[in-house]
From TrEMBL:
PANTHER family per the UniProt record, alphabetical: DELTA-AMINOLEVULINIC ACID DEHYDRATASE
SUPFAM superfamilies cross-referenced by the UniProt entry: Aldolase
Enzyme class: lyase
Entries under PROSITE patterns matching the protein: D_ALA_DEHYDRATASE
UniProt KW keywords: Heme biosynthesis, Lyase, Magnesium, Metal-binding, Porphyrin biosynthesis, Zinc
Official protein name in the record: Delta-aminolevulinic acid dehydratase
Annotated positions binding Zn(2+): C118, C120, C128
Residue sites binding 5-aminolevulinate 1 per the record: R208, R220
Sample GO molecular function, one term: zinc ion binding
Quaternary structure and partners: Homooctamer.
Amino acid sequence: MTLTHRPRRLRRTPSLRALTRETTLTPEQLIHPLFVHEGEGLTEIKTMPGVYRHDVPGAVASAQEAWALGIRSVILFGIPDHKDAHGSGAYAGEGVIQRATRAIKAALPDLTVIADTCLCEYTDHGHCGPLVADGRGGWLIDNDGALDLLAQTAVSQAQAGADIIAPSAMMDGQIAALRIALDAAGFKDTPIMSYAVKYASAYYGPFRDAAGSAPSFGDRSSYQMDPRGGYREALREARLDVEQGADFLMVKPALAYLDVMRTVRDAFDLPMIAYNVSGEYSMVKAAAQLSFMDERRTVLETLIGMRRAGADAILTYHALDAARWLREA
């Protein structure tokens, strides 16, 4: 029998496979996350092997390592010493993120510094906005009260030199509130990276350990998205953020929501960010430590899958390792 079509012809050698690839992955498409704490020194996060809480000098050093590997963007998460009901450390001029931003930009002026803009790491109750009594002996998240605090945080971060503001609180109207505040403060050219499609996910567990941001009561299901919500809710959330002035859209988590990412990617023409979250990272790390999986191949395959689903860039705790592996390839 004579076969006319043999797809294997184009897979025969490494150079042929490289020639015909549709999906690429480069260090420039990775965003390196940094946890920055108020204390001194370096502390490994138990639930995220290979990820650390840095002091400000350590954050600068890690950013320099990322730059040397070809990574051009970092995102900063703050871990303050002091927490209060309104998360005032988030918008303090000398807050940990503000100080880290200034230090990193002084050392690496061409590196893109993204500031995570939320209150949960800074509130003593662990929620993403201030609380109000619900009239039944309980508490509710004050959505509209959070908007002013998030706007103050965004302006403070931009004043410190942040190149991109990334609000993650999932408060209704937050993109419009931040855009108005940034413009009024003279930061019309500072883009907003919206955590537009963010689910109330079990995959965030290790992050909450890392950032000390677990809620002291209840959960975030009333303001983060329902994992069973479907495509319509995702498109509505993304559309509202686009209408309010978002410059990037993000889907978080990425791995369990690649179908959602593809749907949002096809509906909007803004740059798409995939957040390869802490639980996704820790699962691979745990399996690799037990020799159940090949870490390098698994990580790169996962990141390629996110690119194929529509991600223009990927925020991932694997960033440093992935950049090394890509340079070796």
